[in-house]
Amino acid sequence: MALRAARRLAFCSRQGRRLLPSPAPAPAPAPAPCNRKAVPAAAFLHSHATSFGYKQVREEEKSKLVGNVFSSVASSYDLMNDLMSVGLHRLWKDRLVSKLNPFPGMKHLDVAGGTGDVAFRVLERIKSVGHRAMQGTLTDTEEDTHIYVCDINPNMLNVGKKRAAERGYSGEHCLSWIQGDAEALSFEDGSMDGYTIAFGIRNVTHIEKALAEAYRVLKRGGRFLCLELSHVDVPVFKEIYDVYSFSLVPTMGELVAGDRQSYQYLVESIRRFPNQEKFAQMIQEAGFQRVEYENLVGGVVAIHSGLKL
Q1: Binding-site residue set
Q2: CA distance linking residue 117 with residue 127, whole number of Å
Q3: Chain segment 278-296, per-residue pLDDT in tens
Q4: Taking the domain 72-134+141-308, which CATH number applies?
Q5: Which residues make up each annotated binding site for S-adenosyl-L-methionine?
Q6: Dist. CA 74–CA 80, nearest whole Å
Q7: 67 vs 14, 20, 35, 63, 155, CA distance in Å?
Q8: Is residue 159 very low, low, confident or very high in pLDDT (cuts 50, 70, 90)?
Q9: Confidence band, pLDDT 50/70/90 cuts, at residue 164
Q10: Residue 165 to residue 163: CA distance in whole angstroms
Q11: Domain boundaries in the chain?
């Protein structure tokens, strides 16, 4: 009963998917909203790239400051996610992976996924598909499966490795943990079937560089998916959400994780992140097609997706 109620709450205000129009194949004499030369998104990016929450900082400082935040919260990250979202983040990640539609033999990259939450779901979905198809036997195709978890923070990766061992995944040849930067990935061009990033892209210094790298490493036909805290678009709900975010979340961070400042940053970083339409435009400007997004819980979170065609 409780699980059914949680699922209804997670998706009760889910809006229909919004698909951005594809860019016109021929160059237009004047910039259009989806034209790759559009200026407003770039101007917004420059402003965002030099912010740490509401503070203005030098670009070279931001990655260090964000690193300090996640080093501080790594050990309590999952517990705080459960508390802040009342456990709904688990259902949101389930939704993300269902949209990915993992398949045996795929090469998948999960960025900013140090704790393994998304990677484990992808692996479990692939195993489920493979076992149903072959009645429990491991096929050669399934053995070709490889999931890479990439995170810039070693403390977050250590949490993920520990969780993998607890789940019995420490011996999985198809699961790799890589310390790396979303803006400068170490993977080859066109090497991945799928790319996911959950609650991570708002923390990079240059969002456009992270999107360009996602596009570079994906194969033709590969799917980009991003789950991120976003902008509430229901007026009354927005007021309640703002009070909750700025009053209760930092207090919970102080009581549970002993770190109010880090959770104050997390709340502020959500407000500084581009809204759903602007972020969708940025994804399209990176080269992706069939760009769309789906709001969950009135826009508390959004799942953006695009294809490399």
Answers
A1: 115, 151, 181-182
A2: 16
A3: 999 999 999 999 999 999 9
A4: 3.40.50.150
A5: 115, 151, 181-182
A6: 10
A7: 32, 34, 34, 6, 10
A8: very high
A9: very high
A10: 5
A11: 72-134+141-308
User: What pLDDT is stored for residue 29 in this prediction?
Assistant: 40
**Per-residue pLDDT band at 80 (split at 50, 70, 90):** confident
Q: What is the pLDDT of residue 12?
A: 46
Q: Quick one: three-class SS letters along the chain?
A: CHHHHHHHHHHCCCCCCEECCCCCCCCCCCCCCCCCCCHHHHHHHHHHHCEECCEECCHHHHHHHHHHHHHHHHHHHHHHHHHHHCCHHHHHHHHHHHHHCCCCCCEEEEECCCCCHHHHHHHHHHHHHHHHHHCCCCCHHHHCCEEEEEECCHHHHHHHHHHHHHCCCCCCCCEEEEECECCECCCCCCCEEEEEEECCHHHCCCHHHHHHHHHHHEEEEEEEEEEEECCCCCHHHHHHHHHHHHHHHHHHHHHHHCCHHHHHHHHHHHHHCCCHHHHHHHHHHCCCEEEEEEEEHHHCEEEEEEECC
pLDDT above 60 for 126:
yes
221-272: per-residue pLDDT in tens?
999 999 999 999 888 888 898 888 888 888 888 888 787 888 888 888 888 8
**CA dist 187 to 144, 213, 215, 263, Å?**
17, 9, 12, 32
For residue 131, give Cα distances in angstroms to 104, 141, 162: 10, 12, 26
Instruction: Measure the N-to-C terminal CA separation of the chain; round to a whole number of Å.
Output: 43
Question: Pairing relation of β-strands 146-151 and 175-179?
Answer: parallel
pLDDT at 264: 84
